[in-house]
Design brief:
It is a single chain. Strand 32 and strand 33 form a beta hairpin. Helix 13 runs parallel beside helix 14. The strands form 15 sheets. An eight-stranded parallel barrel has the order 10-11-14-18-19-20-21-22, surrounded by four helices. It has a seven-stranded mixed sheet with strand order 35-34-31-38-43-40-44, sandwiched between helices. It is an alpha/beta fold. The chain is flat, with a radius of gyration of 34 Å.
Length: 1075
């Protein structure tokens, strides 16, 4: 091998920052001459010699000696003849003369246990079909979305009649359909990394990079994940990064001495489990573990990693008696190296993949587990709430007679419920080893067990925190989980178990469709105790709230006694509906219900000015939803809706997008005071090649922005949280750029950013025929939020403006319409729509681009309307056959003619319509002028943008940069003067860029000169070519001078010339025409 090709990855591996070390170590195909060979690499610094042995050399132990290629102990050899699925091991000769036969720590496939060799299996052949899921995942916000996890052991969920477990592909088809139908959002698999001992359930791994071969090969496991994603189900993996077993073929004393484990056995041995503990302070071990976690997310599209036994990593005395452990350098019992490693692990994964989840199974009171490392946290996304689990399970195991003495076990968890981002787990560990199944934990007779089971799950689903339940619990399996056989599916022949499954299915769908149950989980804003102290009757009640304050009231009775005429304070006046009752006869209950709308009375109770009187069923959970309108018009009872939910949930049809209309559909959109409609469909034809395949608002600006960033940022900074973006011309890139709106904090469940293309009717689609028609086509969208005011904005202007001040002026004037205006020089006024006003700034006349303007107040294309007035005008205008359906030509003149109250709002500051080549160039150059008042560095008014993750820019030894903006990802070794250079641009040695704009991804080759030019995205300016020219050098030519433009994805050949004023949209050869 070429030593240079391995120098960097080897250096990074030994330094502790090669987080794709599986691409360097292990077995990989390489080119050799006209064919291919395979290079094998392994880290064994304490070995005297290492040999590669396997099927390809008839297991001759000394036939393939390996060469030590780094002083720190990486060994390498190349094998020419090998086949896919060939088995192999490393024969490691130790310093004391032993020969250890080791599997490849970085192997991608293994023999099926009990065989222990690695198998040669190059990755990259599988064709994924989950692009829709992966794209949607980037727009999710885990903390404010439903997360309901179905924990599964792959080998015992279902088996064939002979007891053989399903393979990955059969499991994918069966399990993904089942989980989707049951209403789960994610499947969490117990560890699938290869493991030798069945009884470890996968928690003692020997093949960290290989899915266990028990159920198939690696591509089969990819099919499992792919199929789940296609059914709308995420996949979480249990991952053991704290310890590993002592099996001879594994990591245990890999080269004859402790290597992956600590040298000091007071840290390196875990006597409680008979395993070894990873050396978290060793660079190469950190690379191994971080690379492995990233590998599952990147190679297998895994959506989350649940890190097992985090407490065993954090504490030096975990599972050890006095004398079996040593204190750290500060005298404490914390493993400081493990703490630093966990911060590094989470930072690396969530920086690279912020849409993934890192979940901690952490059983102690370690603080700030889910807080970011930069403030001292460990950086996990979620933590299992083991305290809630232990208290809750202890409580429900008590006879109801004694529960009143332990009421605090239900309530104490709320003292710390918001200290972390919690998941409430009823996991595999709680239904084994004599702990009983969830159903069997319940005291009482047969009926009471099922009733208690339903009440507990209803309590769990309403309690703050995401949810996890182990397989089998959903149909109330009686016996404990046994990993050696499949679940007791035969129980579904019995009515009580079928009804339990139906209840869980309905409960899951209610949870996913009811925002108060999942949106606000990390503060008291989402929770309020109503009945906290009724220990005598074993009753608790609380309210959950969504982001807009809509309430759900949960009442749980943990006694087998009906509580009639039970009065409970409620947080909101008006009507309430019972949307779920676990005592329904359909679920096997006694049928004690609260039918019909319930009216809150003005009777103070539980700190609320109003209250309800209800009947609380025995051993049951009841959910009541607040409806301030006293239920929807004509809705006498919600119970048919709930019945419909259950029926829908029992369908075999896919459950994607399942929702309860009352809670999540259009009928219950939340009222907004105001929202913004952003007109972003303009072609920008005067920008020529720059907008040939791009809408004008998407044109790059200022080194790291696009023009639309300014309007979106103004909205957010002004307090507008609902924005409709109306697209038409070349919308694809703009749609992708805006996405979920996350960079602008517009990824919200109630409001946020919405892409609104032309409305498609059943008879066909209509393009927007004018600015007013664009708003008219989206009246239904605006009506969903019932706003008082609507801001109409343009997406192609560059400025910073506080729209809330404009709204304040609008309100104070009692206006129907307020128009933002800019005082322009008189000689420029004829370019704009001009507002003529009286002494109170009321508009008395509007002139569209007048030849002889009467004033200098130019419209900025920023309007605020009272929605009632505008709605009326839009409908009237749409009916006029002679209307151009434009705000400036039709709506504004009509409103003036009708003497509507119309005012101007005077804007003072920088504003630019970058609609021409010259104005776009000038707007960028303005950023380099200290006298231009466009402030991009104001922390109180940030301009947000979506930027790809790029490394810092690099300025080489030959570079010279003056008065320019250089963005991240640039590689500069030439000269840049008074220019804006966007991300990922390369300026090679000897190249010159002056007074120009170079947009993302473009390359300026050696000796090329670019001056007074705009080079669009992903262009290549060849060696020695010239683009543009300085005006003073062109003055005597007698030819017009102007900015030269190179359109997107254009190549200019070496030595070619592009003259001033030229606008190039196709590749330029060397023989450019003389001008």
């Amino acid at each position: 091998m070429n030593p240079k090709s391995i120098e960097l990855p080897a250096y990074l591996f030994h330094q502790g920052t090669n987080y794709r070390s599986q691409e360097f170590l292990g077995a990989h195909p390489i080119r050799r001459g006209r064919g291919y060979a395979t290079v094998f690499r392994v880290w064994a610094p304490n070995a005297d010699a290492v040999y590669l042995t396997g099927d390809f050399n008839a297991w001759d132990r000394t036939a393939a000696p390996m060469t030590k290629i780094t002083e720190q102990g990486i060994w390498e050899c190349v094998i020419r003849k090998r086949k896919r699925f060939d088995s192999y091991k490393y024969a490691v000769e130790t310093r004391d003369g032993r020969v250890l036969m080791k599997a490849d720590p970085y192997g991608f496939h293994t023999e099926c246990p009990p065989q222990t060799a690695s198998k040669y299996y190059p990755l990259g052949r599988y064709e994924w079909q989950d692009a829709e899921w992966m794209t949607a995942r980037t727009k999710r916000h885990h903390l404010t979305e439903p997360l309901n996890i179905y924990e599964v052991h792959a080998g015992s969920w279902r088996t064939y009649p002979d007891g053989t477990p399903f393979g990955y592909r059969k499991l994918a088809d069966e399990l993904s359909d089942y989980a989707a139908g049951m209403g789960y959002t994610h499947i969490e698999l117990l560890p699938v990394s290869e493991y030798p001992f069945e009884g470890s359930w996968g928690y003692q791994a020997t093949g960290y990079f290989a899915p266990t071969a028990r159920y198939g090969e690696p591509d089969d496991f990819k099919y499992f994940v792919d199929r789940c994603h296609q059914r709308g189900i995420g996949v979480i993996l249990d991952w053991v990064g704290g310890h590993f077993p002592r099996d001879a073929q594994g990591l245990f004393e890999f080269d004859g001495q402790p290597l992956y484990e600590y040298q000091d056995m007071r840290k390196g041995d875990q006597p409680q489990w008979g395993t070894r503990v990873f050396d978290f302070g060793r660079n190469e071990v950190q690379c191994f573990l971080v690379s492995n976690a990233l590998f599952w997310i990147e190679e297998y599209h895994i959506d989350g990693i649940r890190v097992d036994a985090v407490a065993s990593m954090l504490y030096l005395d975990y599972g050890r008696e006095e004398g079996q452990w040593a204190r750290n350098e500060q005298g404490g019992r914390e493993n400081l190296e493990a703490v630093a490693f966990l911060k590094k692990l989470n930072s690396e994964i969530l920086t690279r993949h912020p849409d993934a989840m890192m979940i901690a199974e952490e059983s102690s009171a370690w603080p700030m587990v889910t807080k970011p490392p930069y403030i001292g946290g460990l950086g996990f996304t979620f933590k299992w709430n083991m305290g809630w689990m232990n208290d809750s399970l202890a409580y429900i195991a008590l006879d109801p007679v004694y529960r009143s003495y332990h009421h605090d076990k239900l309530t104490f968890g709320m003292f710390y419920a918001f200290s972390e981002n919690f998941i409430l787990p009823i996991s595999h560990d709680e239904v084994v080893h004599g702990k009983c199944s969830l159903l069997s934990k319940m005291p009482g007779d047969y009926w009471q067990k099922f009733a208690g089971f339903r009440a507990f799950l209803g309590y769990m689903m309403a309690h703050p925190g995401k949810k996890l339940n182990f397989m089998g619990s959903e149909f109330a399996q009686f016996i404990e989980w046994d990993y050696k056989k499949e679940l007791d599916w035969l129980l579904l022949d019995y009515p009580a178990h079928r009804q339990a499954q139906e209840y869980v299915r309905c409960l899951n769908h209610v949870y996913r469709s009811t925002r108060p149950l999942y949106e606000v989980e990390n503060s008291w804003e989402g929770f309020r105790w109503l009945v906290v102290d009724d220990s005598a009757q074993n009753v608790i009640a609380f309210a959950r709230f969504d982001e807009r304050g809509r309430a759900l009231v949960a009442v749980i009775n943990f006694s087998p006694v009906v509580r009639e005429h039970y009065r409970i304070g409620v947080p909101q006046e008006g009507g309430y509906e019972e949307i779920l009752n676990s005592d329904s006869a359909e679920f096997g209950g006694s049928g004690v219900m609260n039918p019909g709308p319930l009216a809150a009375e003005l009777v103070e109770m539980h700190g609320c000015p109003q209250s309800l009187e209800i009947t609380v069923p025995p051993l049951a959970a009841v959910y009541l939803i607040a409806d301030p309108a006293a239920a929807l018009p004509g809705a006498a009872s919600i119970s048919p809706r709930v019945r419909g939910i259950r029926n829908h949930a029992l369908n075999d049809e896919p459950q994607r997008g399942f929702s309860i209309k009352l809670l999540g559909g259009e009928a219950m959109a939340y009222k907004k005071e105001w929202l913004a409609m952003l007109l972003a469909g303009g072609q920008g034809s005067r920008l020529y090649a720059l907008t040939q395949n791009l809408a004008k608002p998407a044109v790059p600006y200022g080194g790291k922005y696009r023009i639309i960033d300014f309007t979106l940022s103004n909205c957010v900074n002004s307090g507008i949280d609902t924005v409709g973006v109306l697209t038409q011309y070349q919308p694809l890139e703009l749609n992708d750029y805006i996405g979920s709106g996350q960079p602008w904090d517009l990824d919200r469940n109630h409001g946020g950013v919405h892409i609104l293309p032309p409305y498609q009717k059943s008879s066909g689609s209509n393009w927007y025929t004018g600015t007013a028609n664009a708003i008219y086509q989206n009246i239904r969208f605006i009506d969903r939020y019932d706003p008082e005011y609507v801001a109409i904005l343009s997406g192609d202007h560059i400025y910073r403006m506080d729209y809330s001040q404009m709204l304040k002026s609008h309100k104070e004037a009692g206006a129907d319409c307020t128009i933002a205006v800019l005082d322009v020089p008189l000689e420029e006024a004829s370019r704009f729509g001009i507002m003529n006003v009286d002494e109170n700034d009321r508009i008395v006349e509007f002139e569209e681009k007048p030849k002889h303007p009467k004033s200098t107040l130019a419209s900025m294309g920023v309007y605020i309307f009272t929605w009632k007035s505008l709605r009326e005008q839009l409908i009237q205008d749409e009916a006029k056959e002679d209307s151009s359906h434009d705000f400036g030509k039709d709506i504004i003149p009509t409103m003036l003619a009708e003497q509507r109250r119309m005012f101007v709002h005077r804007f003072e500051g920088y504003w630019k319509d970058a609609g021409t080549i010259d104005s776009l160039w000038e707007a960028n150059m303005d950023l380099l002028n200290p006298n231009v008042p466009l402030e991009l560095y104001d922390p109180d008014w940030k301009i947000y943008s979506r930027n790809s993750a790029q490394p810092p820019h690099f300025v080489g030894e030959h570079a010279r940069v003056e008065n320019s903006m250089i963005t991240e990802g640039c590689d500069v070794d030439g000269e840049i003067d008074f220019s804006i250079v966007f991300s990922g641009v390369t300026v090679e040695e000897g190249a010159v860029v002056r007074d120009s704009i170079v947009m993302p991804g473009s390359v300026i080759r050696k000796g090329a000169v670019v001056q007074y030019a705009i080079v669009a995205e992903h262009c290549e300016i060849g060696e020695g070519s010239v683009v543009g020219e300085r005006p003073e050098c062109y003055a005597d030519s007698g030819k017009p001078w102007g900015i030269a433009v190179i359109g997107n994805n254009v190549s200019v050949a070496p030595g070619a010339k592009v003259y001033p004023c030229e606008i190039i949209s196709q590749n330029v050869g060397k023989e450019a025409p003389e001008q």
